[in-house]
Amino acid sequence: MEPTLVDGSFILYRKQTTAKVGDLVVANHPSQDMLIVKRLSDIGKQGFSVSSDNPAQGTDSRTWGPLREIVGVVTLHRGA
Amino acid sequence: MKIVDFALRKLNQVSPADTVSAHCDGPCGVYDPASARIAAEAVLSMTKKLVDLDMSTDGAHNTYIRYVAIKEEQATITKNELMILWHDYFKPEHLEAHPDLHNMFWMAAKQASKCKTSVDVAACEELMTQIEAIHNMFWSTKGKDVPFATAS
């Protein structure tokens, strides 16, 4: 998610299940037990498509397809 | 904003925040069934050469062994590439649209094993057919119509 987020960045997020395209969103990884933070790029019938701000390095809905739900929306982020 | 940074750092010391990953998988995210197709094509090519080889010529035994060695190697690569696609690229949501997904990979991997342990052109052609089906399934998950093409 560079340059928006770097390793060690702090983020604050509000727990909610809706967001708008362009928001930084927190979601559950589709197949691993971990939280992820990505950019919401599209909302469709199949769910929430998310993208990486650094697409050459990131893994996102190009691989996973749309996510069924999101956990929250980032309200503040600060670099390490 | 330095006060914010200071406050966040202090807050994190008192009550450590959960870790959220922005990367979450292998860093490249580049997958393509072409890797499996190229290896399987090599297996097919070596098998045809083995069938056609005139064993009465000088050095034929050496050539035969070389062909077998390459066929073994490329069949193993085919299986490995299929496995990477299967468990790294494909996700549970893909299974909803392609309920035969697991069976397709299982059968293709078994077919690659058959090609590895035999000299059977028909088996290799069947492997190519199975990989073509995986190719079509893969690109449909990306919403792209990519024609299946072979090098030979």
What layout of secondary structure does this protein have?
The complex is a heterodimer of chains A (80) and B (152).
Chain A: E1 10-15, E2 24-28, E3 35-44, E4 47-51, H1 61-64, E5 72-78
Antiparallel strand pairs in A: 1-5, 2-3, 2-5, 3-4
Chain B: H1 2-14, E1 20-21, H2 34-52, H3 60-89, H4 92-97, H5 101-117, H6 121-141
Salient structural properties:
heterodimer, A: 80 residues, mainly beta, Umud Fragment, subunit A, five-stranded antiparallel beta sheet, 1 helix, 5 strands, 5% helix, globular, B: 152 residues, mainly alpha, Four Helix Bundle (Hemerythrin (Met), subunit A), 6 helices, 70% helix, 1% strand
Question: Can you describe what's shown?
Answer:
The complex is a heterodimer of chains A (80) and B (152). Chain A is mainly beta and 80 residues long. Chain A has one domain (10-78): Umud Fragment, subunit A. Helices cover 5% and strands 41% of the residues of chain A. Chain A has one helix and five strands. Chain A has a five-stranded antiparallel sheet with strand order 1-5-2-3-4, with no helix packed on it. The model of chain A has no long low-confidence stretch (mean pLDDT 89). Chain B is mainly alpha-helical. Chain B has one domain (32-141): Nickel-containing superoxide dismutase (Four Helix Bundle (Hemerythrin (Met), subunit A)), CATH 1.20.120. In chain B, α2 (34-52) packs antiparallel against α3, α3 packs antiparallel against α5 (101-117) and α5 packs antiparallel against α6. The longest helix of chain B is centred in the middle third of the chain and has 30 residues, at 60-89. The termini of chain B are far apart. Chain A binds chain B through residues 1, 5, 10-11, 26, 29-32, 34-38, 46, 52, 57-60, 62-66, 68, 76, 78, and chain B through 1, 4-5, 8-9, 12, 17-29, 31, 89, 91-94, 141-142.
